[in-house]
Amino acid sequence: MSSREIADLLESRHDKVKQSIERLSATQYQPDGITIKRLPIIDLPPMGEYLDSLNRPAHEYRLDKRSSLIVVAQLSPEFTARVVDRWQQLEAELQKPALPATYLDALKELVAAVESKQALEAENGVLRPKALIVDQINHAEGLHTMAEAAKILGTGRTRLFQFLRHEHIFDCHNMPLQQYIPNRFVVKERPFMRGDERSVYAQVYVTGRGIVWLTPKVAGLGPDGQGEFFE
To answer: Could you tell me if 112 and 83 lie in one domain?
Structure first.
């Protein structure tokens, strides 16, 4: 779980959460300045990068379950239940059926899902164009930007992000949760120069299996600004 997600759950500032993480994992010095005692609470978590609301590179910590619960207990014990519920949700996701073993199996699942949906739509007098289905199968390879994926899936980029956040596939910062990486989404860090300083930004891509997996889920979303994207 990222430190940003913890901050959202606690309704707190991200920098305060990061400070608490650093304090709990800091090396403490005795008054004599010689004896060193490391707090046996949490290890300093690994750090990742993301783009903030102004499209600037920023940093976040990635915490395991034990560390995240300790941080919350220190900051806002009254919100511990929220984090426990979120971890239960994450763990439940891991219990879902595994992804298809091969690309061919994935395409078979896609065809079965599309045929099932077509049968349901036929009962309601609605049928999606077959050309769109063929296009999705033809494009279910490689890596695709979110804009490309939305086009393949027959929806808009904004609406696709809305759906992924609503279904807790992406976090509030439009980054995929860990259990969906790397089979369905890939996050690539790309360097850029900010003045004389070299920085990186993160970009999300959808894999071929991700396209296959999303097709039955997002069917009927429609373009941006039209209709509801969830029931």
So the answer is: no
- Taking residue 71's Cβ as centre, other Cβ atoms within 10 Å add up to 27
If asked whether residues 71 and 144 sit together in one domain, one would say no
CA 136 to chain centre: 22
- Kindly report the average pLDDT of the chain as a whole number: 77
Q: How many CB atoms lie within 10 A of CB 60?
A: 23
Q: For residues 199-212, b (16+ Cβ closer than 10 Å) or e, as one string?
A: eebbebbbbbbbbb
Exposed e or buried b per residue across 150-160, where buried means at least 16 C-beta atoms within 10 angstroms of its C-beta: bbbbbbbbebb
Least confident piece of the model among 17-21, 86-90, 97-101 = 97-101
DSSP output for the chain: -BHHHHHHHHT--HHHHHHHHHHHTPEEE-TTSS-EEE-SS-PPPPEEEEE-TTS-EEEEEB--HHHHHHHHHHH-GGGHHHHHHHHHHHHHHHTSPPPPSSHHHHHHHHHHHHHHHHHHHHHTT----HHHHHHHHHT-SSEEEHHHHHHHTTS-HHHHHHHHHHTTSB-TTS-B-GGGTTTTEEEEEEEEEETTEEEEEEEEEEEHHHHHHHHHHHTT--STTSS-S--
User: Is the separation of the CB atoms in 96 and 87 below 8 Å?
Assistant: no
Q: Would 142 be classed as within a structural domain?
A: yes
Confidence (pTM): 0.40
Which residue shows structure tokens 């439940």? 92
Looking at 94, 119, 134, which one is the last position of a domain? 94
Q: What is the pLDDT of residue 230?
A: 42
